[in-house]
Amino acid sequence: MNWIDSHCHLDYEPMSKDIEKVMSNMKNHDVIGAMSISTTTNTLDKSYAYLRDNIWFSVGVHPLDDKIGQVNEIDNYLTKWIGKKNIIAIGEAGLDSFKGSDINKQIPGFEVQLVHAEKHDLPLVLHMREAEDLTLDLLRKYNVRGIGHCYTGTLEFAKNILDLGWMISFSGIITFKNAEHVREVARFVPLDRILIETDSPYLAPAPYRGKSNEPAYVSHVGKYIAELKGIDENEFANITTTNFYNFMRINALDRKI
């Protein structure tokens, strides 16, 4: 099998303390690559040191980061990194009104990332919580392709972003007992539009729930969804990995399958 983790945070502890162990564990679990996601304007100063042929990166600022309102700084950050080797996406960007966060403060920082995603034709890694209507309004202003990351939204929102040509990515949450609404969406999403992720070091899937997550465990997410959709594990691994390569436009010569 050949799995790819489409969303992790290699700069976060404990993974950053022993990156070689993380890579070894990936190999032991048939995980052939991972995309490490930016959340702050200094993320890549640390995580880019982990560059490998099979480690890719996004560049962006999370909606709950303290600097989300500093548009010029975000613009400079994206400009600095876009075009460098294995920088293949924008984000993690979006809107988050969870627990009363000020969503209006987040909009300018989100839009500057949408502008770069459209300008450079890079997929946007979307973070969205409790802001479906406004997020969709903003997405429709731009000609942007993207990934609905760690999907926990409604089926209706999933249908809307699928109509925009987007991918939807599922994390270890899908293995949680109280996540039937996520499983409903996963059953609906077509095979050619689905990705898998860990969002590590968070959201470890069963049987690791409660422990620190890492890219190796994306194999458990993949196997769970394969069973959910009634598909052979090997086939589903190849489908999701091919989806990642195609959507992220990884050169055919660099593919591991």
**Radius of gyration (Å):** 17 Å
Examine the coordinates and then state which fold CATH places here, giving the name of the CATH topology: TIM Barrel
Amino- and carboxy-terminal Cα gap: 9 Å
Q: Could you give the count of β-strands? A: 8
Number of domains: 1
Q: How many helical elements?
A: 9
Fraction of residues in H or I helices: 25-40%
Query: What is the CATH domain class?
Result: Alpha Beta
Order of helices and strands: EHEHEHEHEHEHEHEHH
Instruction: Compute the average pLDDT.
Output: 96
User: What strand line-up does the widest sheet have?
Assistant: 1-2-3-4-5-6-7-8
The CATH H-level superfamily is Metal-dependent hydrolases
General form: globular
- The second-level CATH architecture is Alpha-Beta Barrel
Would you identify the regions where 5 or more consecutive residues have pLDDT less than 50?
A: none
Main β sheet profile: 8 strands, parallel
User: Proportion of β residues?
Assistant: 15-25%
Structural class: alpha/beta
InterPro entries: DNase_TatD-rel_CS, Metal_Hydrolase, TatD-like, TatD/YcfH-like
GO molecular function: DNA nuclease activity; hydrolase activity, acting on ester bonds; metal ion binding
Family: Belongs to the metallo-dependent hydrolases superfamily. TatD-type hydrolase family.
Binding site for a divalent metal cation 2: 127, 149
